[in-house]
Amino acid sequence: MNSKLATSVVRHLGPRLYSTTAIRTVANQPPHGLLIGTAGIFQPSGSPVPANAVAAWIRYPVRSGSTLAAGDAREDDKTVTGTADALTAEKAIVSYWGVPPAKVAKEDGTEWKWKSFRPWEAYAPDLSIDLKKHHVPITFMDKIAYWTVKLLRFPTDVFFQRRYGCRAMMLETVAAVPGMVGGLLLHCKSLRRFEHSGGWIKALLEEAENERMHLMTFMEVAKPRWYERALVFTVQGVFFNAYFLGYLVSPKLAHRVVGYLEEEAIHSYTEFLKELDKGNIENVPAPAIAIDYWRMPPNSTLRDVVMVVRADEAHHRDVNHYASDIHVQGHELKESPAPLGYH
Ligand SMILES: [Fe+2]
Ligand SMILES: [Fe+2]
User: Fold this and answer.
1) With the CA atoms of 340, 216, 306 and 132 taken in that order, what torsion angle do they form, in degrees rounded to the nearest 10?
2) Contacts of 303 (CB under 8 A, 6+ apart)
3) Which residues have C-beta under 5 Å from ligand 2, the single-atom ion?
4) What is the C-alpha to C-alpha distance for residues 24 and 7, in angstroms, rounded to an integer?
5) Listed range (7-11, 263-267, 293-297, 314-318) with the worst mean pLDDT
6) Which bound ligand lies closest to the C-alpha atom of 214?
7) Membrane-spanning regions, if any (predicted)?
8) Ligand 2 centre from 47 Cα, in Å?
9) Cβ 22 vs Cβ 103: under 8 Å
10) Are 306 and 272 in contact (CB under 8 A)?
């Protein structure tokens, strides 16, 4: 970006948003490595930001993403189009090294509003995945895993009944734990043993992040009550520690349990879809975060969101049963390349 253009961008957006240091920084930055762009931003996972992306290193008070559905006014619009009072109320974070966060644009040139994930991390799930695939419990360990999950389902069914939106939101708070715990333990193992992980650390952390994005999506359509928050607090304390110890003792059992949990998740989302189709749950517009994360059309609905989330769960099912199978066959995960980017 040349200095003239940079200065005009800064003028256009208003001097209140920037320090003079930031303006100088904009004018002096070379185009490479800049992130706000007009084309070619969507990249496959892990690929670098394109060098031709046009961007600006500007001090810019970016806030967290909207909690509103597509088409609604965005919460973070206030930082750009709000009144002078609103703007002064926003306090920019000043870094001592003078490198503010880069701005990123979508393919259509509009601003990318999510800080927790970038356009090149978004994806379109494979909806053709076999949802009925089931790992038949054969060994004693399989049966323990299978019946543990079946037993866990009973109180869940009693508690939530047919409130599938709430159920999805609550269960995603649990579903995002195993990948993080498994990834953490494999990470520590890699450090202790001076050895590679075969990509499994990253694969499991990807799964955890994907599950957390399910939660970030469902909390837009279902708000937890105080006692549900308390339940999440308690369940997380118990489940995190139980899974941590379980993974230390038997990773093959831990992955098998998650494989069956994912099978149950597919079933729950199928029931969710049935309720939507019957009209018992309102098919509201898809939350904006879902549209960007799964690269969905702007007019997508909650039903479309449930479809892509269910496809994600089917992928998690495959990854975890596969991980368990590797252990069952007497190998370590690092011996088989992890299914990175498997959506
Ligand atoms: Fe999930
Ligand atoms: Fe899952």
Assistant:
1) 40
2) 273, 276, 277, 283
3) 175, 262, 313, 316
4) 9
5) 7-11
6) 1
7) none
8) 25
9) no
10) yes
- Gap from CA of 175 to ligand 1 centroid (Å): 6
d(CA 111, CA 79): 12
Rounded average pLDDT over 213-236: 93
Under DSSP, is residue 33 helix (H, G, I), strand (E, B) or coil? coil
| 79: pLDDT strictly greater than 50 | no
- Sequence-distant (≥ 6) Cβ neighbours of residue 104 within 8 angstroms: 35, 36, 37, 41, 55, 111, 112, 118, 119
* Among the bound ligands, the one closest to the CA of 212: 1
Which amino acid is present at 338?
A
User: Which residues neighbour 64 within 8 Å (Cβ) at sequence distance 6 or greater?
Assistant: 75, 76, 115, 116
Distances in whole angstroms, Cα of residue 16 to Cα of each of 20, 90, 189 = 10, 10, 49
Distance in Å, CA 265 to ligand 2 centroid: 7
Task: Judge whether 32 and 51 are in contact, CB under 8 Å.
Answer: yes
Distance 245 CA to ligand 1 centre (A): 22
Dump pLDDT digits (tens) for 127-176.
Answer: 999 999 999 999 999 999 999 999 999 998 888 888 888 889 899 999 99
Least confident residue range of 146-160, 171-185, 193-207, 284-298: 146-160
